[in-house]
Amino acid sequence: MLTVRAPATSANLGSGFDVFGVALSHPADVVRVERADRTTIEVTGAGSQYIPEDPEKNTVGAVAEALDAPARIKIDKGIRPASGLGSSAASAAAAAVALNELYDRGKTRKELVPIAAKGEAVVSGDAHDDNVAPSILGGFTIATPDGVTQVDASVPLVACLPEIVVSTRDARRVVPTETSVDQLVETVGNAATLTTGMHRDDPELIGRGMEDTVVTPARAKLIDGYSEVRQAALDAGSTGVTISGAGPAILAVCPEHDRKHVASAMLDAFEAEGVDARAYQTRIGQGATVHHP
Q1: Residue 120 designated active-site
Q2: What SS3 class is residue 223?
Q3: Whether residue 256 lies in the annotated active site
């Protein structure tokens, strides 16, 4: 048996829609695999009652098929589905890394990214690399049709997850199909600023670079209390706030000494809006890790 821990992720980061992603130090999914004649799946943990165990309907089943690696697969969910924290991507990433090693397929971590994306497509309907890439590789990733660029980074973050469900499919329906040249120029500038901040581990630059006037405002309408929570985080010392992935989780970047205050402020703001939530005081961390028995 082989065990792999794959971290939660936050995609988009405001200005990098479908391109940027970061691995979070926690929470995470843990996947255990064992060779078998056919693939079977068992799911436990957060939201497991909503996750199908049929290999044709589960992210890891698609990964096992793509690698021609049938296995008994046990998934312990530490990441709630429909959270905006890459729940389906983490399971797919962990399975890809685990089965690649279990069957000695010899693929590099970067070669596993599109394979894991095929698994995530089972849930989201589309194969995107922005969540699976950081879950496999760690750090900050830039996923384009030409491949993935990875940057090691370590920046304090708060991921605040309300008890609201926003499906990836619903969040994609509200994305604008057109934008102005001015918005395009602003987005490119912000994305460049964010990327520079990642190279420097600079929360101030990253926060400035997370600004987005195209996708985020449209998706914010799906999250009760978003504006209030965002402002509370900024008032508490966050340098930038945006929606994590498709939401409803809200991501705040901040200096280390402000992280606890930011987390408390975000929780209080959600509570004031009548919404239960939990806050992960996390940071940009490493990708999937293999644990041998």
Answers
A1: yes
A2: coil
A3: no
Active-site position among 120, 187, 195, 211: 120
Is 161 annotated for ligand binding? no
Q: Which two tokens stand for residue 136?
A: 């496999």
Catalytic pick among 168, 195, 216, 282: 168
Q: Which domains does the chain have, with CATH numbers?
A: 2-152+285-291 (3.30.230.10), 156-283 (3.30.70.890)
Alpha helices, DSSP H, located in the chain: 59-66, 87-102, 109-124, 132-137, 168-173, 181-200, 203-209, 215-220, 226-235, 259-272
pLDDT tens track, the chain, 293 positions: 899 999 999 999 999 999 999 999 999 999 999 999 999 999 999 989 989 999 989 999 999 999 999 999 999 999 999 899 999 999 999 999 999 999 999 999 999 999 999 887 777 666 679 999 999 999 999 999 899 999 999 999 999 999 998 777 778 888 988 999 999 999 999 999 999 999 999 999 999 999 999 999 999 999 999 999 999 999 999 999 999 999 999 999 999 999 999 999 999 999 999 999 999 999 999 999 998 77
